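Consider the following input, taken from an annotated entry for Mechanosensitive ion channel family protein (Pseudomonas izuensis).
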Amino acid sequence: MRNALKWMIVVVLALFGPSDAMLSAAPMSGAPAISFARASVTIPDSDLQDLLLRLNSLKQQVSQASNYGQLEAPQDQVQALIQEIARLSALLLPEQAQLQSQLSVLGPAPLGEAALEKSDITRQRTALTEQKNQVDNKLKTLDTLKNSATELLAQIAVIRRSLLETEVTQQTHSILNPWFWEPLFNPPEDDRQRLSAFLQQMGATLDAAWQPGQRFYTSILLTLSLLLWFVGHRLTDRGLTWLCIHRMPEGRLRRSALALASVLATVLAAWFALQLLFYALTRHLPLTPQLVGFSQDFEKIVYTCVLITGLSRALLSTKHPSWRLPAIADPVAVAMKPFPIRLAWALLILVAAAQMTNATGMSAQVVISVRGFAALVITLMIGGLLLHVSKTRRALAATGAAPEAGTTLAGVIYAFASIAVVISLLALLIGYVSLSRFITYELVWLFIIFSGFYLLIQLLRDGCEYLFSPRHSTGKALKQLLGIGDARLDQISTILSGVGRAILFLIGFITLVVGGVGSTLGQLASNTLAILGGEGLRKLNIVPGNLLHGVLSLIIGIYLIRTLRRWLDNEFLPKTEMDPGMCASLSTLFSNIGYMLVILLALSSLGVQWTNLAWIVSALSVGIGFGLQEIVKNFVSGLILLTERPVKVGDLISISGVEGDIRRINVRATEIQLADRSIVIVPNSQLISQNLRNVTLGGSAQGVATLELMFPLDIDPEQVRNLLYDTYIEHESILDKPPPYVRFSQLKPEGITLTITGYVNSPRNVGAIKSELLFEILKRLGAAGIELAKPPPAA
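Applying the prediction step yields:
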């Protein structure tokens, strides 16, 4: 027991004990002075100087750029520089906070009797102040560098947009003009020298990797790189496929997982092979600036080609048609299969050649000719794919088979691609080469974005359907944990799937706009976060950590509210002396207040600053004034009904010609159940503002069973009176107090009207009891030979 208590104390101190700063600041018993662990400045000045030099070099590169493509590498490098600055700032911020806390413990220097202070405290304060000043200066320098780099990034975007507009609208020679092809077959002497110098740099790098003594090692690395791509790709694909088949549940989720596994296997194998290839060729001699830029661009285009092949293989799935996600007929998929691989190889060769002209700084004539040739080849390949698919679909249609289950989306994609191909060819024919290149590259990029996000959306939808399905273990566990039914699980699945798909659509659109052929995942992520993480979200202080806290607070709070309400309804309230209506009102009021508190707690966990929500309050007040006043009035009326309880659940009321039992009092409206079991929804404000008859409010309300009968003038009134009175008295449901009575209501030429009234224990039983009394009265009248008066004949 003592050991258990000891370990418990240790755990509590570890979790809730004082922080390191407090421990370092707390004096030991008998210690002559306060002692601190000396904080160390972790970032040397040389690192800051290197960052400044990198930024100046990037500014010089941007100022010397002459075309759109030359700004791609500087843009990536500026983004990497910003990330490096943010990383260094994150390292210094905890150190700054530690130094500030230590100085706060020491306090300011005394103003009056300064000599009485111990010299060691003075030295500590001076040393800590110097360290904090150093850290503050470094943080200011980093902040200045970050602001300058951010401005440079914005300037690059403006310059790239301007250069793109200039290049797209620039008209050169047509592809039918021999002058267009002249620079390809007979380039100028300056361009030949630039290309020769570039090839010499590549040759020097290869010679360094193939020098004597390194050839065996280089051969092994190159062989491993090839094996990783050809053999490792297949092994990785088979391994991930085996995991999906044996570890994923049967159904649509397994099919989506198999498609994603195929893409991941392709990308991973390409990444490892490419990294090993670069290491094998560049491990001895560092690359020149030209080769560095070209290698970065080449790496991007390799990943683009890998994504084309991986996504097409995953979505077409010609080897396993049952795994295919889109509704594409087998002949159409087989006809499309060779085109993505051919397109990938063409892009790899042609775009690499175009990037080589940018890296070497060749003349505009050569750059335009290479771009035009690449755009022509890619356009013809995409056009050939469209024609081949169209021919296959027509052949299928001739046989009576539909090529796709739903042809709307396929038709839109086909029409859009066809129009783009026609415009690209026309642009090449009239001399707008850069426009044609832009269109073809955007077609390729659109295919990558559309296919990738289509795969992610399918995976998200199938995952939500599986997780919240009551037929699977996860859905059963959620039902038991949250106490909800199958319909509610379906609603949660639909909402989460819809919200997730909306978010993916938004991210996909942003990626399509900010990216392009050759964009890396890091560049896309940084651009997307820069757009999504704008000033509005930063003002609301919504960060991923706070978002997770808010979601957890919402889930746990709702679970606790539902659990406590079940406890109130099933255990506590039934054991009290309150009536069922009061119990239902208290339960509803508790849940409404609880949900409001949970929402406020979730917003606080999100880090939402209420001062920044003033515009929401203003908009809400305007909305209340124009359109939400009825909703607010009903909400307040519902709270009044639940607190003052002029009506409660179970009461029999009558309002505006509607009579029935109150079934439920909600926040906005009240449900009234009529005699035919139908439900009337009445706004709560009407129950407060209008005249309302509550039959059962007093708790002792009695029902009145009244019958009016007309008899001929020649009857014996006393005999009929006694017959009616005896019938009421002898019925078991008629109360003795007050006793029933018979009144002489009317005397007309048509007959005598007698009214008999009796009281029953509940107004809800009046209808059934009146029916029974009528049957009995008619029976006794017939036995006594007394007839009811007949209505006069119509004139």
